[in-house]
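Quick note —
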Amino acid sequence: MKKVTVIGAGNGGVTAAYHFARQGYDVCLYDLQAFDTQLQAIKKNGGIRALDEAHGCQMILGGFAQAITPTTDAKEAAAFSHTLVMICPSFAQEPLFNELLPHLSPNQVIILMPGNYGGLVLSHLAKQTRPELDLTFVDAISIPWATRLEQEGVITIMGLKTFLPLSIYPKRKADDELIERLTELMPIPIEILDNPLVAGLENINFGGHPLLTTLNMGLLENFNGKFAYYRDCCSPATANACAVMDKERLAVGQRLGFSLRTELEAMNALYASDYQSVYEFNRESSTHIKINQAPASSASRYISEDVPYLLVPCYELACLAEIKVPIITSCIHISGAYNQENYFDSGRTLAKMGLAGLTLEQIKVLPDFCHTKSAK
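Predicted structure written out below.
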């Protein structure tokens, strides 16, 4: 039987384990012992259940999946499969990778969904400690599913993207055999992007999460997130602000020589829709209107993950390109004030990606082995 290891037992990881198992894979689902709640439930229930209906809405891909081995043993997880799919918050990528690193074998493939520049960071870490591994890192712009955990070991899948853009790093590893394996594994078609920087800049959470959440924080906190996020937090005015921030992202991409989709183009393409504005998409998307909850505080991943791991890298690239990005910069400042944290320092910087000291022209081509000395 085909095998795959899933790293991370949150919303996306449990859903990935479920869907891969339904596709005929033998799945190992790993997480740290401190976060083993879902693993224990899956072990007790003998698998993962996806509901056909929830909150008065019809869901997709309902059923029950077995052939899933839950574990907190990093050695077991690393040895289970040549391919490891890491689906976790960006801040957990490095701790989980460090647990796995002593047990990894040469030429294994690490898929990060979403990547958020994680392939560069983890490649940098591996080269510092175990350069003989020659690992391959695949950075996806997102996960294939719109999904939520309903209860322990039970998920709802609200929608499925039509395709998944991803990058392969080092680029020399992007041969036909690997692309065929990725195509077989993923539940939707894949699109190969040029490099992990493009994958990071193409993440569709870039504008829709951090800025909308920042602009609505007072109401979100005072009403404990009891909103349908995409419908209630996106207004004509907030959509205008998001559009300005999207133009800043596109300008950074253009300066680097990347042809990026606009936020609207990306959402229409990924969900096979034809909305005329981001506002219209957020209000009417058949997938997103099923999401009847919203962040309840500034600790939400829409800020604590998307600001340091999506906005900060874009800001750093903008500084290198000598482009002003005032909305991005303001969102980072305000989010940092909310959480009393300097995201400009703690976020995913070029140094942490191993790109410190490179010129703009060097970063444009992103050679396979461009990592600099250890980042602090």
